[in-house]
Amino acid sequence: MRRSSESPREQRSQRRGAPVVVGSSDCGVARLPATFITHGLGSCIGLCLYDAEAGVRGLLHILLPSSRIDTAKAVKSPFTFADTGIRRMLADMERLGARRGHIVAKMAGGAAMMGCPTIFDVGRRNVASVRQTLRELGVRVVAAEVGGSISRTMTLDANNTMIVRTPGRSEVRR
Amino acid sequence: MNATPDLDAVLAAADDLEPPPEVLLRLLRVASLPSHNRRQVVDVISSDPIVASRVLKIANSSFFRRGCKISDLSQAVGRLGEATLTTMATTCAARMLAQESVPGYGYTDSGLMEHCQAIAIGARLLARKFGDIPTGVAYTSGLLCDVGVLVLGHFVASHEHELVQKSGAFDQREKALFGIDHAELGGILAETWGLPESTCAAIRHHHRPSEAPEAHRTLAFQVHIADMLAKMSDRSATLDGMSYEVDEAWAEYIPLEGDDVQGLLLEVCDEVRSVRAMLNEPTR
Fold first, then answer.
1. B79 and B121 part of one domain
2. Which of these, A113, B16, B189, B252, has the minimum number of CB atoms within 10 Å of its CB?
3. Of B31, B61, B93, which marks where a domain is finished?
4. Whether pLDDT at A26 is above 60
5. Total domain count, chain B
6. Domain contains B182
7. Contact status, residue A30 vs residue A129, Cβ threshold 8 Å
8. What is the spatial distance between Cα B50 and Cα B38, in angstroms, rounded to a whole number?
9. From CA A79, how far away is CA A63, in angstroms rounded?
10. Are residues B136 and B265 in the same domain?
């Protein structure tokens, strides 16, 4: 397991007022006023979940769509995969007081090379798997900046706004 | 708007790029020999005190340390294994070439170095699984395939808006604007430095491997696909992002199927993490 909910890292970042940096195959979950950032979303997905009422939020950086390809890896590192990562993240949020029916999702990433053959299009499969897993778990996606051939940096600010930045382009706020 | 630079200005800037350290060039040449032995690797590393001390430090780190402290490189080879030693030494030497941040493309905090490590690791995995290219050749070709970025980055920084406005693959946009793309420029640099012909060809054609000479095409495809894997999992959001084309002939040279790409992506990410831990470099 990578980390339990609201770890010392999140608590330290909260005290400093700096965003918690979430790396690939990792997840951060905390109460307000914590904010989160993840860099370099290519085919990966950055997924923000929050319960505005409870003030509990988090960001998950997903590498691959399904734990089916390496179940042992999924036990050691559940946040690598959409199916296991989202379930673990929700459990962590609920431990901090979030309620499933109040949680909504915002997502970014899932890019692919230009004219990408299906076998290389991990981004599209990541998007589909995230949407399907969230549907199964009853979580609504309220904003998505996905696809294309661009790489992205994603932030979740204190107002639950998802900010997506790509070099050379205007930032997107959703 | 900045005036568009002509090709001569880009090539003049390439001439000004400080060449890589001699120890790196010698390591690359040795690693490229299919029949190289560990004595040759040790001899090259011994010739550079900085790289030699770094390698010894790694061999004595908690990651590798089993038993007593070692103080000579022959023992380090025994502890690390020759392939790991070559990886460590080449990467240590190549770090001298990579800059902390690269203007234009958007790499920050050694992001380009991490990107190149991922390509090198991916190319070596592909070489191990498919074809008969020596893994050292695949590794070093991947490690250096984006060396042209170090030169072209300065021009990209001044023409960011024009590059974003253009359509098509990013290497084609570079070529349209500067008269040359970063892959071709990297190939020219590699030739100037006297790197092996196969490595020069793989660098020059890593975005369009079908255009590589037949003898080096498999290596060029290995670097092409490894670059794609690295872009999928990069830690930096860059100006070019994933705006490159997949060469349609990939299956003739690298017979991937089913979930192979996802498995490779997982292996590359794990190995990058492991190499960076060994080198005591943070992974964001």
1. no
2. B16
3. B93
4. yes
5. 2
6. yes
7. no
8. 19
9. 8
10. yes
Q: Which token pair is B228?
A: 């794609």
- B169 touching chain A per CB within 8 A: yes
B67 and B161 in a single domain? The answer is no
Q: Is A114 on the interface with B (CB under 8 A)?
A: yes
- Looking at the fold, whether B112 and B208 belong to one and the same domain comes out as yes
Angle at B86 between CA B77 and CA B253, to 5 degrees: 135
Is some CB atom of chain B closer than 8 A to the CB atom of A169?
A: yes
Quick one: pLDDT at residue B282?
63
Q: Domain check: are B132 and B219 in the same one?
A: yes
Average pLDDT score over chain A: 93
Q: What is the dihedral of CA B128, B132, B134, B135, to 10 degrees?
A: -10
Looking up tokens 């395939």 gives B145
Q: Tell me whether residue B169 is in a domain.
A: yes
**Helix spans in B60-204 (H):** 73-80, 82-95, 111-129, 135-144, 148-158, 160-165, 170-178, 182-192, 197-204
Task: Report d(CA A152, CA A149) in Å as an integer.
Answer: 10
Q: What is the DSSP letter of B241?
A: T
Residue B89: give the domain boundaries.
21-93
pLDDT above 70: residue A121? yes
Torsion angle of C-alpha atoms B225, B231, B233, B235, degrees rounded to 10: 150
**Residue spans of chain B under pLDDT 50:** none
Q: What is the pLDDT of residue A2?
A: 44
The CATH number of A2-173 is which of 2.40.160.20, 1.10.10.10, 3.30.1330.200, 3.30.450.20?
Answer: 3.30.1330.200
pLDDT at residue B15, as a whole number: 84
Give the pLDDT score at B196: 85
CB-based contact (8 Å) between A150 and chain B?
Answer: yes
Residue B11 maps to which CATH number?
1.10.3210.10
